[in-house]
Amino acid sequence: CQPVPKPESRVEVCDLNPCPPRWKVTPAGPCSSSCGLGLAVQLVTCVQILHGQEVLQEEHLCPVAEKPLTSVPCVIRTCSYEWSFSEWSECSTSCGNGIQTRQDFCLSSLTHKPVNPLFCRRFPKAIVVRGCSAGPCPEQEGTLSPGAELQPVTPATHLATAAATTEHRHKDLDVPLSAGPREQTKPGGGEEITAKRSFLCVCGNLFLNATGIINMTGVESRDCTVAIGRPLREEISVTILESSLNCTAGEVLLFSGRMMWRTGCRKLPLSLINSRTNTLIVKQRVVLPGNGVILQYNSRTATKKYYQDCDQQLFGPQGEILSPVQLPEERQEVVCRTFITVAPRQRISIRALNTDLGPEGNQTHFNYILVRDVSSMKTVVFRGKQQFLWQSTGSQAEIEFHE
C-alpha cells in the first residue's frame, strides 16, 4: 500500500448500554477452624461498570437467586480430637415421661483416650439430655394431665398429632402449625375483655393473616416488637395509618427483613414500606407513655423471586425439617434452605434426630448442614453423623443443606 496515501488514524467514542449490575466476590479470609471443617468469610458486593469505573450498587439491583455464599467451607487438616459419650442412663421415672442423661468426654483419635475437654471446645457437641417414656402410670390411664402434650414420647408422633388438629387453619402458609396470636372471649362482656387483652398483648406476637391492622399505641413496654409472616411466594407492604411518636425524644420505628432494613420517625403517616420478602419485623421504641403507631399491612404476590424452589418456610411453634433428597444424577447447584420465623417473644431450638452426611473424610467435607442465627448473624456447621441441639438468640433462623 506504500504508493497509496495513508489515511489518518481516528478514534471514535462509542456509548454502549451499561452492563447490568453483577456480584463481585473478594478472596475468602482465613479459615475459622484450625482443624476439621470450618468457614471462611468472603465479601460479596453488587457492582456495575459505569464509564469504565466499578461502582458499588445496592444489593437488590443484582439477581438475588445468583448471590454467592458469604461463607464457604474450608478444611486445613484433620482434627485429632472428637467428642465421645457414655451410654444413656435409665429413664428417670418408673412410669410416665422422664429424661435420660449421658456423660460426654473429649477423646484423642490417636491414643483413643480421654483428654482435657479444652481440646474439643471448637467442635459441636451432641445432646446429653433427652426425653423418655416408661409407659402410662396406673392412675393416669385414660386421662391426660395438663402440659403432658409438651413432653412427647417421640417427637414424630407428637408432631403428626398436632399437625392433624391445626393444619386446616393455615394450609395457605405451607406449614401445619402457626404461632399467631389467638384471643378467647368469655360469656357476658367478653368482647370488651378480648379487645383490651389484644390491645395490651400486641407486643411479641406473630401475625400470619393476609391483611390486618396492628395498634402499637399505649403499650406498656418501652420496646414493642411484632412480626408478620406470609408464604414464600408473597411479600408484605405496610402503611402507617397514625403516628404519635416523639422524634425529638428519640422515639423511632424500625423495619427489618431478609433483604431490607429501615428506620423512621418523621413523616411516618401514610408512608409505605415494602418487605421485599415474605417476613417483616417491626420494632417500636417509645419513651413517653401512650405514644405509638397504628399499622395496616397487606400481602401480595412477590414482584421478584427471592427464593429457590426447594426452599421452605416454617412459622409454627414446632415442626419437622427434612433435608431435600437428591440422587447423584440430579445434583443441583442451588442451596436448599429452610427459613424459621416464630413470634418475637419466642426462641428456636433445633434438634437433629438423625443425620447421615456420609463418612467424615476429606472427600465428603462439602456435605454439611449450616444453621444461621439471624439475630446475631452467627453460623454453625454440622457434618458427619452428629446429633445436635441448636438454640437461637432471636426469633429467626435459617438452615442450608449443602450437597
UniProtKB/TrEMBL annotation:
Pfam families in the cross-refs: TSP1_ADAMTS
PROSITE patterns referenced in this protein's UniProt entry, alphabetically: TSP1 (PS50092)
Signal peptide: none
GO cellular component: extracellular matrix; extracellular region
Domain of life: Eukaryota
UniProt-annotated location(s): Secreted
Keyword hit for Transcription: no
Designated name of the protein: ATS13 metalloproteinase
Species annotation: Hylia prasina
Source lineage: Eukaryota, Metazoa, Chordata, Craniata, Vertebrata
Gene: Adamts13_1
